[in-house]
Amino acid sequence: MVIITFPISMLCVFVVVRHFERIIILRNGKIYKNRAFGPGLVYFLPCVDTVKYIDLRIACYVVPPQEALTKDSLTVSVDAVVYYKVIDPIPAVINVADYSVSTQLLGATALRNALGSVKLTDLLIDRPAISNQVLEQMKKLTSQWGIKVLRVDIKDIRLPLQLQKAMAAEAESTRLANAKIIVAKAEIEATKNLQKASVILSDNPLSMQLRYLQSLHLIAGENAHTIVFPFSTETLRKIFK
Description:
The chain is an alpha+beta fold and about 240 residues long.
């Protein structure tokens, strides 16, 4: 019997792993050397090894619009943008079948849960708070997959047309009510000032005469053809007596 041997280099496959990549080699179903390989030139045995490529760059995806009921039972449609990256390639291969799809589905679920825990006004006023809530929910699970969620941003909030009209009508009513309150406060303040002025003028006759002359000057400056002289009843009695 003749045994022919081949150098190990003839049975290997060499691949170039780029700087932003890592590969996991599964030899006979087990992680080879319990670590990720790369960057640089890496070889593996095609007959007994299975190679998994992992991209370490930041990935971004848009969560499709999610329709959900808010805490005050109003329907909204919200979409978001999620940024994440792989920080540990081994759990990303071993602990989850497809870390990319799983992260995207988790983002949609976390967004729906966050929408159900807040009121519509809070959602419209404070978007960053909702984004942080989704971010924290995702971090709890993705850390077990070797994934780090970096940022979550609420992209758009869509309301039903009827709800938009109702909110616009409510805002208009609020503005009108505030305007009436401001006018009423101004009238009260003006009345108080007139009362103070009347007390001052009644106590000082000379001030009353000066005010009377000032009124005549203002009337004459407007090119008016009629001038009204305000005489008291006592003065008229003295004139026509």
